[in-house]
Design goal:
Keywords: Carbohydrate metabolism, Glycosidase, Hydrolase. It is a single chain. This protein has about 500 residues and is α+β, with helices and mostly antiparallel strands. It has a domain of about 325 residues: Glycosyltransferase (Alpha/alpha barrel), CATH 1.50.10.10. It is about 45% helix and about 10% strand. It contains 17 helices and eleven strands. The chain has a four-stranded antiparallel β-sheet. The radius of gyration is 22 Å and the shape is globular. The chain starts with 12 loop residues before the first helix and ends in an 18-residue tail after the last helix. The N terminus and C terminus are likely disordered.
């Protein structure tokens, strides 16, 4: 069958150039795929080049980096590769006493043996948490899209889910449903004062728990003899999901109205009185830039909530995932979209899009990052620009448009126009800049000082952005739970 009804000679030069770039990106992505145990198993972090003897790990297969790769492969119908990747990660799930249930940050095959990294080889020796939370999410996307119910019910998958739940659903002395993690334990992998309950981890936990429930209910439905463990675990996990969402929407979601209320709340509240200011936030701690940032109808989830000092920075990935997983209601998602439109000069600039805003500068940068030269202001994770983040926002918009096609058509039209412009920037700039990992500067004009070129998630993020803009979300999955009180409004 012909791929196009338009004769080749009548195509515009621009469309021919775009097709050539797409083909080149696909070829680059294919080069990143490596074999493990004799079969293609995943993509290395970057296409390797001589590194002057430095012991870099860009030649390893990272679980987090491979999430967009696997989604792209699912859309291409390469289901066996995705399943093999999930099995390898499952086989490497930690059984050590302190880390039982943890999935590896990355792995590689050396001399026929799988070698996994649980943080022992990372800078700062911090184990990433997000890799473990991503595995059930990717597993559920695979199972529901391919309808491989047998794999979802497999005892190995169910054991992996239970080990992970044992790890993350531990009682906490704080008595809150959030998961506490150290600095540097997720995509923000250098010191950035994100310890505690950072947004990205909490949103991933929400998505992870929902997918664990889906997988457990799948096994329960297909099992002739009901499992006592699942019968107990499913309602407990559902309750945790409900409590976590309520907590995040109460304490992390801010608008101009909620900030105005917070500014006028009493402080120093002791005893059994009704706590209107639970974290004792002083009005003087609320930054001035929030007023213009939020405008009148914008809203977003702040970066962290801690006693006396919430983190008001905007983190792109956590907010985009909150839309994708249905943590935010539809009106809240539209408030977030308005905020992105209002602040597009900051978030998109000349290389969409910024990982967080605003960056830390001066003495604050020195004290909170340990004078980290990679995280100098407007660089890397301190306000740097990451092309790999754009597709998450595009997917959030695509899912909202799919569920609510008639809601605020003007807003979604403006946002789609902005996202198309962002895609055109990627189309123009990324091939010329050798698919760099991140970009520096207030406008994201310069290639990152320590950025790797031909970065895998830059390449696949570009491909997914185009796919979602042109065809919407073709993945056959849903994160919503049946009879869910915590679902998308």
């Amino acid at each position: 069958m012909s791929k196009s009804i338009i004769p080749p000679r009548s195509r515009s030069r621009a469309s021919l150039k775009e097709e050539k770039i797409i083909q080149s990106a696909e070829a680059h992505l294919e080069r990143t795929l490596i074999k493990v145990r004799g079969h293609l198993a995943g993509a290395v972090a970057a296409i390797e080049y001589p590194s002057k003897g430095m012991s870099l790990n860009y030649g390893e297969v990272f679980l987090r980096d491979n999430v967009p790769v696997m989604i792209h492969l699912l859309l291409k119908g390469r289901h066996a590769l995705v399943r093999h990747f999930l099995v390898l990660c499952m086989d490497l799930q930690s059984s050590a006493l302190q880390t039982r249930g943890l999935f590896p940050t990355s792995f590689i095959e050396k001399e026929g043996e799988l070698v996994a990294d649980y943080g022992q080889r990372s800078i700062g020796r911090i184990s990433s948490v997000d890799a473990s939370l991503w595995w059930p999410i990717l597993c559920w996307i695979y199972v529901s899209h391919v309808q491989d119910w047998q794999f979802g019910c497999d005892q190995r998958v169910q054991r992996a889910v239970q080990r992970l739940l044992d790890l993350v659903m531990q009682p906490s002395v704080a008595g809150t449903p959030v998961l506490f993690v150290p600095d540097c334990s997720f995509m923000i992998d250098r010191p950035m004062d994100v310890w505690g309950a950072p947004l990205e981890i909490e949103v991933l936990l929400y998505g992870c728990l929902k997918c664990c429930v889906h997988l457990m209910e799948l096994a329960q439905h297909h099992n002739a003899a009901p499992s006592r463990l699942l019968s107990q675990r499913i309602p407990l996990t559902r309750q945790w999901i409900h409590d976590l969402r309520s907590y995040l929407l109460k304490h992390y979601w801010v608008t101009s109205k909620t900030i105005q209320v917070l500014r006028r709340r009493p402080t120093e509240q002791y005893g059994d009185v009704q706590h209107l200011n639970e974290f004792n936030i002083q009005p003087t701690f609320i930054p001035d830039w929030l007023q213009d940032w939020l405008d009148n109808r914008g809203g977003y989830l702040i970066g962290n909530v801690r006693t006396g000092r919430p983190d008001y920075r905007f983190f792109t990935l956590g907010n985009s995932l909150a839309c994708i997983f249905g943590l935010l209601t539809a009106p809240q998602q539209r408030a977030l979209f308005r905020l992105v439109l209002h602040n597009n000069n900051h978030l998109m600039a000349q290389m969409p899009m910024r990982i967080c805003h605003p960056p830390m500068e001066g003495q604050e940068w020195a004290m909170k990052t340990g004078s980290d030269p990679k995280n100098w202001p407007w660089s890397y994770h301190n306000g740097g620009h990451w092309p790999s983040l754009l597709w998450y926002l595009v997917m959030a918009v695509a899912l909202h448009d799919k569920d609510h096609p008639n809601a605020d058509v003007l807003l979604t039209g403006q946002l789609k126009t902005l996202l198309e412009r962002c895609y055109q920037i990627h189309l123009s700039q990324l091939p010329r800049q050798q698919w760099a990992e991140y970009f520096d500067g207030p406008t994201g004009t310069w290639v990152g000082q320590q950025a790797r070129t031909y970065q895998t998630w830059t390449i696949v993020g570009f491909l997914l952005t185009r796919e979602l803009l042109r065809n919407g979300c073709r993945l056959n999955f849903s994160f919503a739970l049946s009879q869910e009180t915590s679902g998308r409004a």
